[in-house]
Amino acid sequence: xxxxxxxxxxxxxxxxxxxxxxxxxxxxxxxxxxxxxxxxxxxxxxxxxxxxxxxxxxxxxxxxxxxxxxxxxxxxxxxxxxxxxxxxxxxxxxxxxxxxxxxxxxxxxxxxxxxxxxxxxxxxxxxxxxxxxxxxxxxxxxxxxxxxxxxxxxxxxxxxxxxxxxxxxxxxxxxxxxxxxxxxxxxxxxxxxxxxxxxxxxxxxxxxxxxxxxxxxxxxxxxxxxxxxxxxxxxxxxxxxxxxxxxxxxxxxxxxxxxxxxxxxxxxxxxxxxxxxxxxxxxxxxxxxxxxxxxxxxxxxxxxx
Length: 305
Known about the structure:
This protein has 305 residues and is an alpha+beta fold. The chain has helices spanning 2-11, 18-23, 77-89, 101-111, 157-160, 165-168, 215-223, 237-244, 289-292, and strands at 51-54, 57-63, 66-69, 73-74, 91-95, 113-119, 122-132, 135-139, 145-149, 172-174, 181-187, 196-200, 205-207, 228-234, 250-256, 263-269, 274-278, 283-287. Helix content is 23%, strand content 32%.
């Protein structure tokens, strides 16, 4: 659950609703109130779900490993799969105290996010959800308000349904097999002696300036470009302009057999935090520093020992 968990922590300080802070702090558990016996917020067979709708987000299944976001944008499969796990495990923690039922229910009705879940075009579950800080409140179709959570998952449930369009968008930034790469150039402005250009040839690949090529190293390195992912998309023009005015840590230029797979990315940062600018997509991203750092190899690394 790492993707959703980390994003929720980043967003948690931004999306606190003042009205909920005032109203929800008043509730107290009522031990005499029983849990709903007629409605479950969880979906018993999440594998049958083919459409999920909440707020301005619509996720639709196209195949076992393909979902689209708002009809025409590829959705991030890992994040959608995490959402399906959440929908299968949502549970009632306790009912809202009877004395606060009408107040809380009205707040959820007015400010909550409506969640609709479909299987084969049929609506199989729906509810409204809202909250403040770490408390999530859901309203069943019958109008009952409950405190809800996901057992064994360290997430703030209502914030899952407040994630933005870019949070659900596919975060794959490079995905090409080694046979689909025509050339790959990495430039290190501060240490140009480590820069290199790798090109496809009739027999295999070559690295300019390397006489005895380690073909195993080349193959393993190119394999890394089959699935390069961003951690998140960033919508910050000031940060983007500031980075573009500075010399990058490195610049990777990948030319693919299929032009749509080609991409160039300039990277800034250190081993803990890496930011990148995708030139073809014109998009600023935060990179997964640990996995992306494996792309930082040097020309001499391709020399056969």
